[in-house]
């Protein structure tokens, strides 16, 4: 269960209205499911590139943080030649709805992290002290599977993988490699 959604819609070198349009599109989809939605806006001027984006994070009742984000970059007028076609640029409303849908899909998959951060979670489990780590994630992504292969090859840590057909999640267990920070001073 999600208890709150927070985020930021940002832009640089474009109209501040674009950020507001992203914000309303994303919040409009979220408000159908949960009332506690706050998406902050940030518009900046300056720099060489123009674009906008949004990043949102859902916090569950168990304290898990699940995120989604997307950006749109606008080409400079100097880079576009007269002969080339104008690139099709996603509207701010479509961007807001896309990110909101991405976050809702991540939440529906279940697990303690979103699919983008599965590999990082597995690496942290593998590096921890030689104790059993158990985590539940949604469907394994190809990047997560490659991370598991690399962990087995480099750290010789094997994960026991058990799919749960009731919740469409996967439970992974391992015994950490016990890697220590030798540069850390012991007090």
Automatic annotation (TrEMBL):
<feature type="domain" description="RNA 3'-terminal phosphate cyclase insert">
    <location>
        <begin position="1"/>
        <end position="107"/>
    </location>
</feature>
<dbReference type="GO" id="GO:0000479">
    <property type="term" value="P:endonucleolytic cleavage of tricistronic rRNA transcript (SSU-rRNA, 5.8S rRNA, LSU-rRNA)"/>
</dbReference>
<dbReference type="InterPro" id="IPR036553">
    <property type="entry name" value="RPTC_insert"/>
</dbReference>
<dbReference type="InterPro" id="IPR037136">
    <property type="entry name" value="RNA3'_phos_cyclase_dom_sf"/>
</dbReference>
<dbReference type="Pfam" id="PF05189">
    <property type="entry name" value="RTC_insert"/>
</dbReference>
<dbReference type="GO" id="GO:0004521">
    <property type="term" value="F:RNA endonuclease activity"/>
</dbReference>
<dbReference type="GO" id="GO:0005730">
    <property type="term" value="C:nucleolus"/>
</dbReference>
<dbReference type="InterPro" id="IPR013792">
    <property type="entry name" value="RNA3'P_cycl/enolpyr_Trfase_a/b"/>
</dbReference>
<dbReference type="InterPro" id="IPR013791">
    <property type="entry name" value="RNA3'-term_phos_cycl_insert"/>
</dbReference>
<protein>
    <recommendedName>
        <fullName>RNA 3'-terminal phosphate cyclase insert domain-containing protein</fullName>
    </recommendedName>
</protein>
<dbReference type="InterPro" id="IPR000228">
    <property type="entry name" value="RNA3'_term_phos_cyc"/>
</dbReference>
């Amino acid at each position: 269960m999600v208890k709150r959604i927070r985020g930021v819609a940002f832009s640089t070198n474009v109209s501040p209205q674009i950020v507001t349009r992203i914000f309303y599109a994303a919040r409009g989809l979220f408000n159908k499911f949960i009332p506690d939605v706050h998406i902050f806006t940030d518009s900046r001027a300056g720099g060489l590139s123009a674009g906008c984006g949004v990043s949102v994070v859902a916090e569950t009742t168990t304290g898990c943080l699940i995120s989604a984000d997307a950006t749109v970059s606008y080409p400079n007028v100097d880079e576009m030649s007269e002969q080339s076609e104008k690139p099709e640029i996603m509207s701010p409303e479509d961007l807001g709805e896309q990110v909101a849908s991405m976050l809702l899909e991540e939440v529906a998959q279940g697990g303690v992290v979103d699919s983008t951060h599965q590999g990082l979670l597995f690496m942290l489990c593998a590096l921890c002290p030689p104790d059993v780590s158990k985590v539940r994630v949604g469907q394994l992504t190809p990047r997560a599977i490659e991370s598991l292969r690399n962990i087995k090859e480099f750290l010789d840590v094997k994960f026991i993988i058990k799919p749960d057909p009731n919740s469409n999640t996967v439970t992974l267990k391992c015994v950490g490699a016990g890697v220590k920070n030798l540069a850390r001073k012991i007090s």
